Every structure is written in structure tokens, then in C-alpha cells.
Amino acid sequence: MKGTKSRSVLISGASIAGPALAYWLDRYGFDVTVVERAPTVRSGGYPIDVRGTAIDVVERMDLLPSVQAAHIDSRELKFVDAEGGVICTIPPDDLTSNQAGRNVELPRGALTTLLYNLTKGRPIRYRFNDSIETLEDDGSSVEIRFKSGDRHRYDVVIGADGLHSRTRRLVFGPEEQINHYLGRCFNIFSMPNDMGLAHGAIIYGEAGRTAGALAVRDSKEVFAFLIFASNEPPFGAHPDGEEQYQRTAAVFADGGWEVPRLLQAMRHAEDLYFDTVSQIRMPTWSSGRVALVGDAAYGPSFLSGQGTSMALAGAYVLAGELASRDDPSDAFSAYERIARPFIEANQALAIEGNGFLLLPRTPQEVEARNQILAAIAAGEGIGAQNDDAGKVHSMLSLPDYTG
How far is CA 358 from CA 80, 249, 266, in A? Predict the structure, then answer.
């Protein structure tokens, strides 16, 4: 293992990629600081998946038993029509790759808590309630002025601060240049579980709009979602919540099933999260002594189901390459060379996969969805396509950086 072990690294973002990267860099002897604008690590959140190569990452972190213990065991997806009649009920595994032991679904907050607990007992500093205000890379170090007013210099700065990364904007410019819109917008929020839903989801989809709810085990609340198609992004980087509600209500004005109740719950939800469905695609993930990881560098959108797994795998490779090389630029180049084929193949799953089954945009896609659901219900399945996705999930063989 090469590298100057006392090198200082600032990581912006304490969700998934940030703490995972911090863990590996600390193991390799780096002086690590994580800055997070929230007052603490964010718990809660909708379920996410850890699949394929990412399973190898959490296993090497000795977290696999804890991750598996948090598995939420979703058992059914129920598709309904406007009157609530059941079109088809299928196991979620029929729509996703489920290689034995290589796919774990767990609440996002469960994973962020596991990662934070793994790192907080180590000599890693967390700066909560703070963020990067300015960043100046002079070629030998990076000077940071924090929002709190403090100033510090670091040898390397890593942006792990999500799809709308401020670190990326400070170094690479406006998001519009690298944000690739995928033609949909989504809303997700909590509401009481008075549908009798447990261990699964119920989905109502028409051309250009989908509504539904997801229950984590037998929770008293569900995650409700309202998703709609739009040829152009209907808002900019800082949309207004009331405008988004009015926009969504107009799209779903004559919606069937439980749509009126979902709209009412959306209006009063305290945890409403909404955004466009987009991917981040960058020609390079680094500049000078600054690099990006996770959604900040290559957010794939939830249509791929691979954002968390890509973040974990990317953090592992980035840390290992920084530890193996004295020059950060060389490390960043190796990180891209190793990880980019895996990243781009997984991003492609959002474009080439079965997204229309959950989010049909046209009447033709609705008809195709219904035919495929009928085939799945008859036991025909779509196994070959899922097998291909499973190969993509596991296509990156992790380098060994312990030598």
C-alpha cells in the first residue's frame, strides 16, 4: 500500500457514499473529516437495494449480517385498475434480479445508520449543521471556507453530496450541463396505512401517470408516490412545494383508485420529497484535487434501482486508489478507469429495463405492461432480462487494496 497516510481528506455529505468512503479512507490511515448540512445523519426514508458488487463491499466492511437483518422482505406487487380491481399480483423478484444472497432491500435510514455507527467510533470528524461555502484548489491543497465561517485546508476534497451536489457546482459549474432528464417527475411522502398493506406495494398506473403505496413490513405508515410524465422538466433546481402540489393535482385531477386521498395526504405531508427523474452523466468525475462519488458523480435515477450499490462500490474503489497512489490525480484517473464501465452499464438499466411496467408513459406502454403482467401471472416471467441485469449488478470485481 503506497501513499502518504497522513493525507487529509474532506468529504461533503453523510448519507451513504460519504460515510462508506470515510470508513475505507480511515482504514488506510487518512485524516478524514465529513461535513453534513443536516444536524445529524438522516434516518427514515424509502427502501433501497444493495445488490451484486455492493454486497461484496458491505461484506468487506463486516456489515453484511446487519444489512441482511434489516431486509424488509417485500412479498408482493399488486397492480390495480381505476376501480381498485386487481389486474395482477406478483412477487417483486419477478421484476428484479434476485441472485441468491445478492440482493437486500432495506430502509435507507437503516443503512445510513449502520454506516454512521461504523464510522463514529473511529478517528473520523463529523461537522454537522455545516457545509462548504467556497472552495479554492491551488494545486497543492484545497482551501475550504465553511458556512460556519471556519477555514481549513485539505489535501483532497470529495463531493458525496447527492444529485444536486454543491461541491460539483462549485468545481464543475451548473448542473444543467450534466443532468439528463428522463421524462418523469415524482413525489413521495408518508401517509397512514389504512389500506391493509403489508410487505409490499400496490400500484395504479395509466398512460403518463402512476400512483401507489409501499409498506415496509407491516408499518402503520406507507410511502405513497405520485409519478407523472412530462416532456420537459417542469421546474428548475429549487422548485416550490405549493407549485409542485398544484402541478401534480392537475395531472391527477380525474385519477381513479385512491388518487384523491393520496393528493390530500401529499398536501399535508411533512416529509414530501419531489424531484425530476434524472441521471448525472459527467465526462470526468474529478478536477485537480477534487473528485465526486455516488449520486454527485453518476446518479442513475431510481429507475435503475442501483444508486446505493453504485455509491458503495464507487466509494470502495476511490478510497483504495487514493491509498495506492501518491498523486491524487493518478488515483482519480484509476478510479474512473476501474469504475466507469460498471457505472455506465448500471445507468443504462434505467433506460433499457422494465421501467414502463411501473411507469407507462403511453397507451401502447400500458397495453404492453398488461400483457407482460398477464404472462408473469401465468408463470412465463421475464427471467432472461433479469438475468442480464443481475450480471450488470455484479460485473465489477473489487480490487484487493490490502496488500
Answer: 12, 20, 20
For 331, counting Cβ atoms within 10 Å of its Cβ (0-12 exposed, 13-18 middle, 19+ buried), the class is buried
Summarised one tens digit per residue, pLDDT across range 70-97 is 999 888 999 999 999 998 888 887 766 5
Report whether 223 contacts 48 (CB < 8 A): no
Instruction: Please write the tens of the pLDDT for every residue from 116-135.
Output: 999 998 899 999 999 999 99
Per-position DSSP letters for 358-398, written without gaps between them: HS--SHHHHHHHHHHHHHHHTT---HHHHHHHHHHHT-PPP
Judge contact between 112 and 17, C-beta under 8 A: no
CA distance 26 to 121: 11
Closest CA to 120 of 38, 48, 37, 18: 18
How many Å apart are CA 267 and CA 259, to the nearest integer? 12
Predicted TM-score (pTM) above 0.90: yes
